[in-house]
Amino acid sequence: MHQPDPPPPAPRPLRADAARNRAKLLAAATELFGSRGLDAPLEEIARRAGVSIGTLYNHFPNREAFWDAIFPERLAALDRVVESALAAPDPWDGFVGYIEGLFALQAEDHGLNDALAQRFPAAGEVERACHRGFRRAEQIIERARDSGQLRPDFEPEDLVTLIWAMSQVIRESMTTAPDAWRRCLAFFLDGLRTGAAHPIAVPPLTPGQLSEVMRAR
Question: How far apart are CA 52 and CA 31, in angstroms?
Answer without folding.
Answer: 18
